[in-house]
Amino acid sequence: MSEPLVADPGAARDGGPDRKAVEVAVGVLVRDDGAFLLTSRPEGKAYAGYWEFPGGKLEAGETVEQALRRELQEEIGITIGAVTPWKVELVDYPHALVRLHFCKVFEWSGELQMREAQSCAWEQLPVAVQPVLPGTVPVLDWFAQERKHSGATHFVAAYAGS
Ligand SMILES: Nc1nc2c([nH]c(=O)n2[C@H]2C[C@H](O)[C@@H](COP(=O)(O)OP(=O)(O)OP(=O)(O)O)O2)c(=O)[nH]1
Questions:
Q1: Ligand 1 test: best mutation among 41, 57, 72, 153, most atoms within 8 Å of CB?
Q2: pTM for the complete prediction?
Q3: Residue 109 pairs with which residues in a beta bridge?
Q4: For residue 113, which of 77, 95, 109, 122 is within the disulfide window of CB 3.0 to 4.6 Å?
Q5: CA of 151 relative to ligand 1 center, distance in Å
Q6: What is the pLDDT, as a whole number, of residue 19?
Q7: CA distances from 149 to 34, 122, 125, 143, 154 (A)
Q8: For residue 41, how far is its CA from the centre of ligand 1 (angstroms)?
Q9: Which helix (H) or strand (E) holds 38?
């Protein structure tokens, strides 16, 4: 079996017998002008308010592509066209070990509807929204490499404590 790409953040590991990775399908929607869609995580979920690419966990028996079609329909109300697998990343969060299957999507139909009361933003580098979910930051680096973007990919809020 080939090893997934392990990226920062994370002392990501395969977790041992009690810590099995949760498979997650993630959609990187890219518009003709190169802008990509970020959504904020809804209230009630881990990391609520953090920005990420839309997607969610695979259900039993689903492929990544099937899960992505279902999640993007359920969460943002669109029907996606072709799905292009891009990168796989294993991230070790306190709440879960997740294997993120990032896929690019260039074609979809339907109007965006935030069905879980999320916010959404079409972004270019550096992205203006913050905070960005830790497991989402590497995607911005991959975009930066592809687009030969130098400098920051996103902003991190300054520590406000004394
Ligand atoms: N959708 C998405 N999830 C990400 C990204 N980066 C990242 O680390 N994750 C993590 C956060 C979560 O631990 C996991 C996704 O699980 P989730 O809770 O959002 O999935 P879901 O919509 O199926 O949730 P639920 O049905 O359990 O409420 O993947 C990303 O860019 N997009």
A1: 57
A2: 0.88
A3: 79
A4: 77
A5: 27
A6: 82
A7: 13, 17, 7, 8, 12
A8: 8
A9: strand 36-40
32 has a pLDDT exceeding 70: yes
Please state the ipTM of this predicted complex: 0.94
Characterize the bridge pairing of strands 108-109 and 55-57.
Answer: unpaired
Does 152 reside within a domain?
no
Give the CATH number of the domain where residue 51 resides. 3.90.79.10
Domain assignment present for residue 127? The answer is: yes
pLDDT class of 160 with cuts at 50, 70, 90 = low
Rounded to the nearest whole angstrom, what is the distance from the C-alpha of residue 112 to the centroid of ligand 1? 19
Domain containing 63 equals 5-147
Each residue of 124-148: pLDDT tens digit?
999 999 999 999 999 999 999 999 9
Residue 160 in any domain: the answer is no
Pocket of ligand 1, beta carbon within 6 A? 24, 26, 45-46, 52-57, 91, 93, 96, 98, 100, 133, 135-136
Nearest CA to ligand 1 atom 20: 56
Domain count along the chain: 1
Q: Is residue 161 part of a domain?
A: no
Mean pLDDT of 81-99: 97
143: left (phi over 0), alpha (psi -120 to 50) or beta: alpha
